[in-house]
Amino acid sequence: DTKETDPAIPKPAAKGDQITNVIGEVGRWQIEKVLLVFLAAAPGLAHIFHSAFITPKTKYWCGLAVNKETGETYIPYDISEPKYTHYDNGSYDKVYPNNTGICMDNCLDYDHDHSFWVSTMVTEWDLVCENLALKTLAKTILFTGFALGSFSAGLVSDRFGRKTAVWGASITMFIFGLITSFIPWFPLFVFTWWVTGTMAIACYTAAFVWVMELATGKWKIILGMSMNYSWPVCRLIIAGLAYGLRDWHWHLRAISGLVAFGTVLMFFVPESPRWLIARDRTEEAKEILYSAAKRNKLDIEKEMIVLKRPPGQGAKGSFLDIMKHPTLRMHTLIMYFNWFTTAFIMYGLALSWQNLTGGLFLNFIIGTILDFPAKTLALVLVQMVGRKYPYMAGSAVTGVMFLCTLFIERDVYPSNWPIVVFALIGNFSTTLCFAILYMYTGELMPTTVRAAGVGSSSLVSKVGGTLSTTVAALADIHPAIPTIIFVSLGLTSSAITWFLPETKDRKMPETIEDIERAKCCPCGGGNDDN
Hints:
Blueprint (H helix, E strand, L loop, with lengths): L19 H4 L4 H14 L4 H9 L5 E7 L6 E2 L8 E4 L5 E4 L11 E6 L8 H5 L6 H29 L1 H19 L5 H27 L4 H10 L3 H16 L2 H18 L7 H6 L3 H14 L16 H4 L3 H6 L1 H25 L2 H5 L3 H24 L3 H18 L11 H28 L5 H19 L2 H7 L2 H17 L15 H6 L13
Helix pairs in contact: 2-7, 2-10, 3-9, 3-10, 5-6, 5-7, 5-20, 6-7, 6-10, 7-8, 7-20, 8-17, 9-10, 9-17, 15-19, 15-20, 15-22, 17-19, 18-19, 18-22, 19-20
């Protein structure tokens, strides 16, 4: 007989927990809410990869110069009448000025080829020649915003809630993204672009943690890793916008429109029940879980739902506690290096395809399409094999693939296709590693500092992303330089991951004490569900 004081499900499954015991492992409510969070978080990520299309390589020439002796201005090349070279098959090429791409110390104003790009950051503010460094500087500042967003999202969502963090970041991103599209002054543009980027990654980081805390077992893996598809989706979005609109102003306005739609959707998403329980707000969590159970057509009385409050010490966890405890500190530092490595390689490739391989749209889209099978393979591997060994293998493959490119002579094969193939395989394995990291990191962190742990790890990845903005410049010096860095980071990351525990089939830790009780064992996991 069931007593009124008994939990909603007196005999839960061995791998269940107090949330899934009430609402089930997965149901209509979970799928609906994850879809809403996905649609709210994904569009903002387009701001990250927009930087690849806002500063593309285009032809330029001096449009107005000054004679230093007389002070008179003149036009070095008359472009009033466009010139074309016609071919027998009916095609033609535009003939550009003889001084295309040549910097002149007496040039007052540069003209740009607008045959494909209507407007870019380069053409808007003449970021060529003596102003060329400003292009890299703007990207670097943008990535510092990604770093700040990752870190602040963890702190805000741990203190004020996952939904509050997502909603606040979405609204701010929409406002500043729209403002950025109208800014006529470069310094102000860089600032508003920075704020937009900060909010973009903050929104995704908090959204990912919300999804991670929704389920347990295999559905935690499936739902959590489904958020990783946000990355290729947003890359396809920006590639489509860039090719269709070809004007950076309208790129930002279109992305902002999608972000605004996502902001409205968050109205229908509740706060994370797991966060509410960790904060001792069990009554609010009970209301949400009761509503979810009804949506999933489970016959449960609200009065029968009993939620266990976390231990007092666990409920008061903070970011500083991550570094205070030896085992958690070691796990975190290894993860920091792994995040840095995958981000440096992934962003370095995504933002520098044109410099590394000579192509922009084709290689970018191929790399993006490969994202989907890479993340799907990651999803399969983490369920069948685990987190630790697939990551180690993927990181090692990345290092080996780029090592192979060092032995292939450039400009011998059409479009450097062998180098492109090895680079795409390396990109594939790096993407697989990146998909695993979010899940792996979240499972290593206890509930009360999970968002801060994932957020700080993501911050370190954005440090790698910030430094990846130099890949294009390094490749211009010599293509082997960034390749050697990719090889070193990939192989080292694979090696040190040996010292992390396997988290497959383990119950997510609730408190930091749970972490300290588990030994760091290179030989892997074990089952701590009981």
